[in-house]
UniProtKB/TrEMBL annotation:
Catalyzes the phosphorylation of the position 2 hydroxy group of 4-diphosphocytidyl-2C-methyl-D-erythritol. Keywords: ATP-binding, Isoprene biosynthesis, Kinase, Nucleotide-binding, Transferase. Transmembrane segments: none annotated. It comes from Persephonella atlantica. The gene is ispE. Pathway: Isoprenoid biosynthesis; isopentenyl diphosphate biosynthesis via DXP pathway; isopentenyl diphosphate from 1-deoxy-D-xylulose 5-phosphate: step 3/6. The active site is at K9, D132. GO terms for molecular function: 4-(cytidine 5'-diphospho)-2-C-methyl-D-erythritol kinase activity. This is 4-diphosphocytidyl-2-C-methyl-D-erythritol kinase. Residues 62-140 form the GHMP kinase N-terminal domain. ATP binds at P90, L91, G92, A93, G94, L95, G96, G97, G98, S99, S100. It is an enzyme of class 2 (transferase). It catalyses: 4-CDP-2-C-methyl-D-erythritol + ATP = 4-CDP-2-C-methyl-D-erythritol 2-phosphate + ADP + H(+). Belongs to the GHMP kinase family. IspE subfamily.
Amino acid sequence: MEKLKSFAKVNIGLWITGKRADGYHEIYTVFHTISLHDDITVRYSPSTRVITYPYSISQEENIVFKTLKRFEEWTGIQPEVEVQIHKKIPLGAGLGGGSSNAAVVLKYINNLYKNPLSEGEIFELAQSLGADVPFFLKGGMAVGEGIGDKLRFLDRRFNEKIFIVYPDVQISSGEIYRKVTPEMLTKKEDIHIIDSLLDDFEKLFEKAENTLGKIVEEDFPEVKEVLNTLKFFGYRPLVSGSGSSVFTVGEPAPKLRKVCDIKGWRLIETTLL
């Protein structure tokens, strides 16, 4: 039996820089791992099984099960494992929980079977599973471009305390991307300003924006209420990914804790990792 940690991420800003011929959007974003994580247990099983709790996700729809099946297709090796995932990362929250689970299990299974896939092949397989999955193969801090799969890993990490407010709303990334209009695009030549701030967290966070977050704010009143509440208490909130989670720097004030409790919002205190 093996126990693994599957860490979440936040996007310290996300800008849309273009739309490709295949309909996907090109982005510029800064990924950063955080200490919030799911717990994964892997044990021997004669057949491939994936169990998720406390959230109920059917095995066939689970990205980890798809990962194991894709590994079997690529290598001819059937993973004789049962994977149990204790989810602490909220679903549909823009924190990359499923992508992280997929990457962690893919790396473990490849190692378990004596590395039939090279590092390059693992990244290629990860890309076929989802745009965020390759980032989680290494984690830390990285600039993501293309559809988020062209990664430039940085040799630095921040360690600031942050907290996340999750309003218990699941959001489909595809649904939000479909609402991006040409007026929302950021010129690629303007991105160099953000690139120049990657060594300074305070300045980076001050300039960070999320184009998708603006759409989420308009379409989901629950997220808008979280953003307005954090602003009222003097914080600078930012939507992570395509939402619905909102994060900011520092620690939550006692009155904010009470508001979250009354509203039924999940408050998660974590750190950049």
